[in-house]
């Protein structure tokens, strides 16, 4: 069983409305033309309706008809990640394309604090190798 086949037979992918204010080029709840990727949440009967994103659903996708390039167990903020949502956060101090190598002392400190806070809140005392 392939991943797309399993996902397709057990649930659907939902995305939030990408374009909240329509334009002639991008109608409401569409994927903006300049987008390089689309983030979606996987929903199935085990998840239940309380886990559905709290915004209007923009697109319902069949996993058999999309190219899934990466998966995360929770919201991974793919809109602020390099490599079309599959890489490190752009502001990652060490690996991000807009990270510490391009930031000043204050920018590096703020990025470090943001990542440490996120890690503590979401993973407790686990190190990166354990996540």
Give a short synopsis of this structure.
The protein is of the alpha+beta class. Helices cover 21% and strands 11% of the residues. The chain has a 3-stranded antiparallel sheet.
Folded structure, characterized:
With 131 residues, the chain is of the alpha+beta class. The radius of gyration is 17 Å and the shape is globular. The protein starts with a helix and ends in an 8-residue tail after the last helix. 21% of the residues lie in helices and 11% in strands. The longest helix has 19 residues, at 105-123.
Number of helices: 2
Oligomer: single chain
Uncertain parts: none
Biggest sheet strand order reads 2-1-3
Give the termini distance in whole angstroms.
Answer: 26 Å
- Our Rg estimate from Cα atoms comes to 17 Å
Helix-strand pattern, N to C?
HEEEH
> How much is the average pLDDT?
76
The total beta strand count reads 3
Structural class: alpha+beta
Major β-sheet, in short?
A: 3 strands, antiparallel
Features:
131 residues, alpha+beta, three-stranded antiparallel beta sheet, 3 strands
Q: Would you spell out the secondary-structure blueprint of this structure?
A:
Elements: H1 3-10, E1 11-16, E2 41-44, E3 57-61, H2 105-123
Antiparallel strand pairs: 1-2, 1-3
